[in-house]
Amino acid sequence: METKYLENWLRDAHAMEQQAEKMLKSQAERLEDYPELQARIEQHLNETRHQSERLEQAMAGVNIDTSALKDLGGKLTAFGQALGGMMAGDEVMKGSIACYAFEHFEIANYKALIQAAESAGQTGVAQVCREILKEEEAMAAWLSDHLESTTTQFLHRADDDNLRAKR
After folding, report:
1. Is 121 helix (H, G, I), strand (E, B) or coil?
2. What is the torsion angle, in degrees rounded to the nearest 10, for the CA atoms of residue 158, residue 161, residue 163 and residue 167?
3. Higher pLDDT pick, 91 / 163
4. Whole-model pTM?
5. How far is the CA of 120 from the CAs of 2, 6, 22, 61, 66, in angstroms?
6. Are 146 and 46 in contact (CB under 8 A)?
7. Which band of pLDDT confidence, cut at 50, 70 and 90, is reported for residue 76?
8. What are the boundaries of each domain within the chain?
9. C-alpha–C-alpha distance, residues 133 and 108, integer Å
10. What is the pLDDT of residues 111-122, one digit of tens each?
11. Which residues neighbour 24 within 8 Å (Cβ) at sequence distance 6 or greater?
12. 3 near 63, Cβ under 8 Å?
C-alpha cells in the first residue's frame, strides 16, 4: 500500500484535532449555565490536546511532519463556527449538535487511519489511533446520552427567559 495516503490522512487528523481544540475551547468558555456540559467539554478539550501531541509523536516516529497550512485551515474553520454560534440565541444547542456530529467525523477518520496504518505496517501509529478512537467514541456516547437533558435544560431556561422578558 502506498504510504502517501497514511501521511496525508495523519496530517488531516492533526489539523482536525487543531480544529477540535479551538472549537471546544470556544464552546467551553460560554457554558457557565450548563456546568455538567462545560465540565465534560473541558475534559475532552484536555484529551484533544493530548491527542494532538500523541499524533505529533507518532508522525515524528515515522518521519511525517505536520502541515501548518492544514492546521491553520482547521483553526480558521473552528473560529468561523464559534463566531457563527455566538450570534445564535440557541448557541448551546447548536454547539452540542455540532460537537456530536464532529465526534462522529473524528471516529470515522480514526477508523480509516487505523486500517491505513495497519496496511502500511505502522502498528505504532495504528495503536495511537486506536487509543484516540476510544476517547472520541466515549465523548460521542456522552453527548448522545446527555443531548436530551441538555435540550430540556435549554428549553426550560428559554421559557424562564421569555417569562422574565414579558414582565
Report:
1. coil
2. -160
3. 91
4. 0.84
5. 7, 8, 31, 14, 19
6. no
7. very low
8. 3-166
9. 9
10. 999 999 999 999
11. 41, 42, 44, 45, 48, 99
12. no
